[in-house]
Amino acid sequence: MTTRIPFATFLVSAALAIVSPAAIAAVPMEGGPSFNTLLENLSFDGRVEVKERAVVSNSVNGLLSRVLFNMGGQVEAGQPLFEIADSAYQFKLQTAEVNVARRQVDLDAAVAALSRASALHERGNTSATARADAENAVKLATANLLEAEATLDLAKIQLAATAVRAPIAGHIDGVNYPTGSYLKADTGVILSQVTQLDPVLVSFHHPYTSLLELYAAAPDRLGNLLDAVSVEVTLPTGEQISETGRIIATANALSAEDSTLAIWAEVPNPETLLIPGLPVTVGISVIK
To answer: N- or C-end of the chain: fewer Cβ atoms within 10 A?
Structure first.
């Protein structure tokens, strides 16, 4: 798997490499093309990639009772996508609520008993041991109430989880399980996937020698390169999309085959013209 690093980090490494006499000799430092001209002449074969994809999974067991979306449709983060039968979880919640009420009564009774034991002890009508027992009863009742409240909180979480929601916004795939399937949370069930298509990534490969030429033409602008350039994408039809992108990452090594550096740009895609896998042409220019 290719590791991506910030583009500016790589350019710092490129600057260090250029210090060698061989690199300086290979790149004309004076009288060569301007930085803008070099950028305008750059053109790369690129490909559209997914920026983010997330699986949709259930976190509780149960029967899949409803599907709440249309395959291929746009969904928003947090939108309910599936419903798992919740009658058992409703019952667990009600039971937990009753148990909290019971434990609260136990605590109230223990506190009252401690108050009586303390009063009797002050008058010398009961032993210190009896008062200590009453104090311990209050501590035990408090712990039992806390446990019951934690169980109630868990029951609320489990009931809420019967509505399986979209983890991110994007376009959703089809359903992997038919309605009525029994879903187990501990088996890593993937009910569907959501793919973010706005923005997308566009990957392309930049020859290392060209990076050296850019450095030679604008050695004082490398640190600001990310903010100074935009990425332009042209469709296979020859139409250039109106949205421009920005470079966000590079590979951590040059390709062993052709000494090019893989670069990724993030490009807005509100009309979803850029479909993952689509071959495109990439240009770079200075932001005016």
So the answer is: N
Please report which confidence band the pLDDT of residue 4 belongs to, taking 50, 70 and 90 as the band edges.
Answer: low
d(CA 94, CA 152): 9
CA distance 253 to 258: 12
135: helix, strand or coil: helix
Instruction: For 160-191, write each residue's pLDDT tens digit.
Output: 999 999 999 999 999 999 999 999 988 778 99
Report the distance separating Cα 196 and Cα 279, nearest Å. Answer: 18
Q: pLDDT category, 282, cuts 50, 70, 90?
A: very high
Do residue 73 and residue 169 come from a single domain? yes
Query: Which residues constitute the domain of residue 124?
Result: 59-193
Give the mean model confidence (pLDDT) for residues 266-274: 92
Tell me the one-letter amino acid at 111: V
Considering 161, 193, 225, which residue would you say is the last residue of a domain? 193
How many whole angstroms separate alpha carbon 43 and alpha carbon 234? 10
Q: Give the whole-angstrom CA distance, residue 131 versus residue 136.
A: 9
> In 3D, which of 251, 276, 272 has the Cα closest to residue 261?
251
Start-to-end CA span in the chain (Å): 36
Q: What is the pLDDT of residue 13?
A: 45
Threshold 0.90, pTM exceeds: no
Whether residue 201 contacts residue 48, with contact meaning beta carbons closer than 8 Å, is answered with yes
Q: Which amino acid is residue 44, in one-letter code?
A: F
Task: Count other Cβ atoms within 10 Å, centred on residue 272.
Answer: 11
> Of the residues 129, 164, 193, which one is the last residue of a structural domain?
193
44, two tokens: 């790369």
